[in-house]
Amino acid sequence: xxxxxxxxxxxxxxxxxxGRVAASTFxxxxxxxxxxxxxxxxxxxxxxxxxxxxxxxxxxDVTDEDSWKNTVAFSRxxxxxxxxxxxNAGVMLGDDDDPVSTSVDTYQRTMDxxxxxxxxxxxxxxxxxxxxxxxxxxxxxxxxxxxxxATPQVAYTASKGAVLAMTREIAVVYARRGIRANALCPGPVxxxxxxxxxDNDSKRNRRLVHxxxxxFGEPQEIANGALFLASDESSWMTGQSLIIDGGITAAYVTxx
Length: 256
Known about the structure:
Elements: E1 8-12, H1 17-28, E2 32-37, H2 42-50, E3 54-59, H3 65-79, E4 84-87, H4 104-132, E5 135-140, H5 154-174, E6 179-186, H6 192-197, H7 201-208, H8 219-230, E7 241-244
Parallel strand pairs: 1-2, 1-4, 2-3, 4-5, 5-6, 6-7
Helix pairs in contact: 1-8, 3-4, 4-5
């Protein structure tokens, strides 16, 4: 039996990047997948269908309550339930820098998508999970929720710290009601999002020197962690942070 057999998963930001890889991985493991994104996800859906999986796309602006209401209604109407919520959508804006240089607009947009988006997803999916008596929530935070970033990115770092703290509280509130919530904390993975932020050799090399394994992560490595948190394999795990970072947070002195 596959690891997510007969489950239904909403994945935000699944039209590209880490979310897209996760969508294909979850579908291959038996889950029906709702691709929830502001970008067109029809290509991802077709790939999953061609591979024999089940998927559907719904336009979802994670910062908008009506959009979330529609996403939840669509998911239930299309697949009948919502067993897993994977809050993956996020931004790391190019002008995110230190506290002095970062604009308030950049800070607010980052918080709206990365934190408010997670909150709204939980707000509208948790009632469905309570009706069912079960559910797993996976919120994407970051290793920078545990330590400062080598390259200044104050808005992003603050947002991911908030996601981690929120995840712990959600986990405690619903621990006896069948709902688990865990945070996935990736290290640097070379997605288009990170590539846009690390837009020159100097920034990339500065980041690489802090990774004991000496390389950026692969999207599939993060999807595998998300799959574990979503599945019943992690059934006694809630309120935790799964760090997949090539050893960054374990290192005191990083080899040059």
